[in-house]
Specification:
Layout: E1 4-8, E2 11-19, E3 28-38, E4 41-42, E5 46-47, E6 54-61, E7 64-71, E8 84-91, E9 97-99, E10 108-110, E11 112-119, E12 125-135, E13 138-146, E14 155-159, E15 167-171, E16 174-182, H1 198-210, E17 214-222, E18 227-233, E19 244-248, E20 251-258, H2 268-272, E21 277-283
Antiparallel strand pairs: 1-2, 2-3, 3-4, 3-5, 6-7, 7-8, 8-9, 8-10, 11-12, 12-13, 13-14, 15-16, 16-17, 17-18, 19-20, 20-21
């Protein structure tokens, strides 16, 4: 799961998470990586030391390669599990990774898992975190910012919408997000049912979410107000939204998967049990 390519010093690497064999459970068994040696040839599998680390996004920024990921995913669907932890790593050779912030291997602890980020021109970090397990910010997502001089100090704001599989990128001065949209009246994942205990809340929100249609959407991110605004839906429906983007001369080349965009507007769970397709599109933000 979560296969990621990265080029480090001209060398190609492939990273992925290994899960268990239970189709209805999330059972992290650590990260593995491979080094490309030539046509049809990959080096031996390398098992990472952390038994549950899930790599999420890898990007090169100003010559430095970063990987953001999380641990504790085995409890992501257990409201009574220990908090999840988000890690930001960096590497000079693609094989050895260390904390991007020395002395601070964990940058966020709580209900957050999938996270992506960008650096602003002033060096501040802006991130969007999927918060499905829930914490003091509620459920849904967290929009966060950390100052350039203290990247371990995240200031976050809760958002009741859940931007699954967040992809965050910058174009000029603007920060953009591609993430899943819940097609309901308000799009919220957190239904604010404070009368329920945390366990009841968790399962009630999951059930409602599974049975609603979805889109893969483009959103704008306000790095000051820490707020997200819907811009448009990409061609998508059903089970959708795990996007990747490449910046090309023709515009942003975006890859995504989806149930048939021209098919019936099925719920997310219906889409999960039906065929999905990979689509390529050009995203013009001018």
């Amino acid at each position: 799961r979560e296969p990621r390519f990265a080029v480090v010093n001209g060398e190609l690497f492939l990273y992925m998470a290994v899960l268990g064999d239970n189709a209805i459970a999330f059972e992290p068994e650590g990260t593995v990586s491979y080094h490309y040696e030539g046509p049809g040839s990959w080096g031996p599998k390398v098992n990472w030391p952390d038994a549950t680390f899930i790599p999420w996004r890898i990007k090169e920024i100003d010559g430095t390669v970063y990987m953001i990921g999380y641990t504790g995913g085995e409890g992501i669907y257990d409201p009574d599990a220990d908090p999840l932890e988000i890690h930001l790593l960096t590497s000079e050779d693609g094989e050895n990774w260390q904390a991007a912030v020395p002395g601070s291997p964990v940058l966020q602890r709580g209900g957050g898992s999938e996270t992506d980020f960008v650096f602003l021109d002033d060096g501040d970090l802006v991130a969007v975190t999927r918060n499905e397990q829930g914490d003091e910010f509620g459920y849904g997502s967290k929009i966060c910012r950390a100052p350039a001089g203290d990247l371990s100090n995240w200031d976050c704001k809760g958002d009741p919408r859940k931007y699954d599989s967040p992809l965050v990128f910058k174009r000029g001065d603007d920060v953009w997000l591609v993430g899943r949209r819940n097609v309901t009246d308000d799009g919220a994942y957190d239904l604010n049912k404070a009368e329920l205990d945390p366990t009841e809340q968790y399962y009630d929100y999951q059930l409602n979410y599974w049975n609603a249609p979805k889109r893969c959407a483009l959103w704008s991110v306000d790095p000051v107000a820490l707020e997200v605004t819907w811009v448009l839906d990409l061609p998508s429906r059903g089970d959708t939204c795990f996007a990747s983007v490449l910046d090309t001369d023709d515009g942003l080349l975006l890859y995504n998967y989806s149930s048939d965009p021209n098919g019936p507007d099925v719920s997310w769970i219906e889409g999960q049990t039906s065929p999905t397709f990979i689509h390529r599109m050009i995203l013009d933000l001018q």
